[in-house]
Amino acid sequence: MKGRLIVAGAVMAGALGVSAVPASAHTSLKSSDPAAGATVASPQKLTLTYADPVGFPQVVLTDASGGRHEAGAARAVDNVVTESVKGPLPNGVYTVGWRVVASDGHPVTGEFKFTVAGSSAAPGQAQTPPPSAFVSSAAKSSSGGGGSAGWLWVGLGVVVLALIGGGIAWTRRKRTG
Ligand SMILES: [Cu+2]
Questions:
Q1: Contact 90, 122 (CB under 8 A)
Q2: Which residue from 62, 113, 55 is spatially nearest to 89, judged by alpha carbons?
Q3: 24 alpha carbon to ligand 1 midpoint, in Å?
Q4: Domains in the chain, CATH or no CATH each
Q5: What average pLDDT does range 14-33 have in this prediction?
Q6: 20 pLDDT exceeds 50?
Q7: Which residue has the higher pLDDT, 36 or 174?
Q8: Measured between alpha carbons, how far is 103 from 48 in angstroms, rounded to an integer?
Q9: In the chain, how long is the greatest CA-to-CA distance?
């Protein structure tokens, strides 16, 4: 009886145009381990926690050069999806792509990135050929995974620009004066 009322309410809401809400409203990723944007040691598995129970999960773990690192099929228990990792993962930036089906039958997709640091795994251990692995490590160092070094260079750039600007102003003043 209560279930019927809920269904009736949902049908009415749909008729009233509430169906215009974005697809992400059907459920959403609440948290993950590793967390989005986190820098971690090579994880043994990925855990994705959703706002609502989900089914038919698919999880893909990709390195910066497109190499795949998930192991086996993803499992969904209630609102938690887990996927094993084919590790250990070499250092680098990884993208987790996921797709689940919400309890209302609508598919929801998303992705997030995390960084592996301090790993002793050689890039060659990945399924990707060596040239791609090289690109992977180059992309990692250029994307400034360790923030502070990147900001140091930005700071130096600002100082250099200020010196150049000051020099030009000084030269102009000297010429006109
Ligand atoms: Cu839906």
A1: yes
A2: 62
A3: 8
A4: 26-131 (2.60.40.1220)
A5: 66
A6: no
A7: 36
A8: 16
A9: 91
Q: How far is the CA of 11 from the centre of ligand 1 (A)?
A: 12
Distance 165 CA to ligand 1 centre (A): 56
Distance 18 CA to ligand 1 centre (A): 11
The predicted-structure confidence for 50-98, as pLDDT tens digits, reads as follows 999 999 999 999 999 999 999 999 999 999 999 999 989 999 999 999 9
Taking the centre of ligand 1 as the mean of its atom positions, its distance from the CA of residue 146, in whole angstroms, is 39
Report the separation in Å between the CA atom of 59 and the middle of ligand 1, taken as the mean of its atom positions.
20
Instruction: Report how far ligand 1's centroid is from the alpha carbon of 90 (Å).
Output: 38
CA of 27 to the centre of ligand 1 (A): 8
